[in-house]
Amino acid sequence: MLHAAKHPTPQSGRVKFSSSNSEEANPPEYEAFKGVIPRAPTTRALSVLSVDMLVADNMDAHNTSSYKNTNLIVRRNKEFIIVIRFDQPFNNQQDNVQLEFMIGNSPTENKGTYITVYIGKERRGGRWKGRVIGTQNNDVTVGITPDASCIIGRFNTFVTVMTDVGKQRTPRNPDTDFYVLFNPWDPADVVYMPRDNERQEYVMNDVGIIYNGEFNNIAPRSWNYGQFEEGILDACLLVLDAGKVPLLYRGNAIELVRQGSALMNSQDDDGVLVGNWSGDYSIGTSPTAWTGSPEILLKYAKDGGLPVCFAQCWVYAGVLNTFLRCLGIPTRVITNYSSAHDNTGNLKTDIILEEDGTVNRSRTRDSVWNYHSWNEVYMRRPDLPEKYSGWQVVDSTPQETSDGLYRCGPTSVIAIKEGELSYPFDARFVFAEVNSDVVYYQSDKYGNSNIISVDTTNVGKLIVTKRVNSNDYEDITSTYKYPEGSDQDKQAMQMAERRGVPARDYTKPAETGVAIELQADTIRIGENFKLTLNIKNQTSQKCTLNATITGCVVYYTGVTSSIFKLDSKTASVDPWKTTKVMIDVAASEYMPYRVEQSNLLFVVYGRIQETGTALTTTRVVAPRPPDLTIKVTGAPRVGKDFMVTVSFRNPFNFILNNVQLRLESPGLILTRLKTYAQIAPGGTVQYTDTITPWSPGKKVLIACLDCATVRQVTSQLEIFVQ
């Protein structure tokens, strides 16, 4: 049974759930048994001299050697080896020794927070398996196997020698603490992923690509997940502690993913990140300035669980990706281009136009985000029919509440595709994000609205993720939806309606026989460009189109800002012909109105003179930011310095003020930050730093320049350390 609330509130008189990994029990070193004490002890006194966790060997075997951590890190359902040294030889038939593993401040056996493994003459089974592998002189080699559903977190280790009169426990030793993670290498774990190349990408890869821009102008930006960096594993456990997630539930991957979705945002639980789409980031860091998750998670941990300012969707997705990969759950970041935020839940995104064709911002409640990023996790779903296991959507951007909290998922991607929306969690919301119809209305001066066109193909136009072992994107649209208009697509829609999604209660306007399409070139910020309006007459009669073209600045969330262009065109098109109409857009028109991540939304509203019928189309133009370059001087070698230079030239005719430049690289350096009060028009800056690598292999340098007037200036450079 999964829990709807963030954490249960114990009723009066009930046992309180332990919800902190950092708080520890302090068991006594000696405990006397109650009852009659024999006249002479029958068990010889055995003392523990040391416990060797064999950290390096075990971590190699458990695929955890990448973690920068001095303590042992193991995975569920896989044996790890320790060596216990006694003051005298261990006798398997006479000596009675038990290993105790504890997590939290009130460990109990029935909640999985107190584990006992017996070695020696007393043999009892428990949750975890243990065996004596061998003895040599006073050393005993023991194998321990955590069970496949055990709690994820940091355990304390004690070795206890049982005698007739009591038990002698080793003192608390932080060096023998160890972490247990999920195990995607093992079929018994619900997060098992069969293919090794996918495990390497979705669990072990510590740098990735998050895709922004628009569907026909995809803009990749590198992101440092950094799940193995020093302090990150402890920071991820702190996130769970700060969210008061009971230890009891931390072995349940479904529960942990759902909790993680809520804990990434600060909306209702002081989670990791504060969302901000206002454009004012003066009291924090702009969402576009971050280059990765470690800086955010380490700041959150350093500040004792104080939310970090600020985030937007791809930042939430990047940090959640780190959080889940760090704990061992296969996770990837997804970008959905033309993502509907359907406020009314009717699979219909309503856009209201004024009589002149401009968008009525006060009456348009729904929005289509230029792109929206979320995550997918790979897991078995024991709570659902078997076919719905595999990739699951989880989204930590606070858009709508789910069971009273801002979170979303996990919900099966296959269930979304089939319109089977009755299973947990939040399938209807995700279904609307990729399947809504965009319905355009024209409003008259009396407030009456008529449908003028319907676009069934715009939403969920393209869904992508980073390809395995490549920096290119993979088109995964077909995993979420069947081809538009196919029989299977219709069946999925019918299934969605049977599962409670309101039917699409509108009538499409009659076909006009005339189609219009708006095309645009790929441009950089500050460039002039042309729009091409294609008018296709598919009738036997000549037609004349009167068109109004409105250009406005729009945030990537689909919220419109200032109108900067209003133009009218008239064109006559012969039967069965196509005519092109060119529209010039000057940089001087849109540059004064730009907002952060500003895209340019063009709406064409046309009316055919001969028939009086109306039609409309839209196009988003996402100007690319200026270039940022990274250069390396010297051959990167382990233990040898090399130089990195990040360069930028201001191509604009205005000053850039309060500029931040970030440089980081997983496995090489944590975030290095340089600030510039201003960069003059045409001016250049160069930031040079020295790096000393301590491990060989492929590394990725990630840089980002950010200020209020230009965002998303990023670059990456792959290097190989010899």
Automatic annotation (TrEMBL):
Residues 305-398 form the Transglutaminase-like domain. Residues 18-27 have a biased composition (Low complexity). Keywords: Acyltransferase, Calcium, Metal-binding, Transferase. It comes from the Eukaryota. Its cofactor is Ca(2+). Residues 1-27 are annotated as: Disordered. The active site is at residues 313, 372, 395. Its EC number is 2.3.2.13. The keyword Kinase does not apply. PANTHER family: COAGULATION FACTOR XIII A CHAIN, PROTEIN-GLUTAMINE GAMMA-GLUTAMYLTRANSFERASE. Belongs to the transglutaminase superfamily. Transglutaminase family. This is protein-glutamine gamma-glutamyltransferase. It comes from Cyprinus carpio.
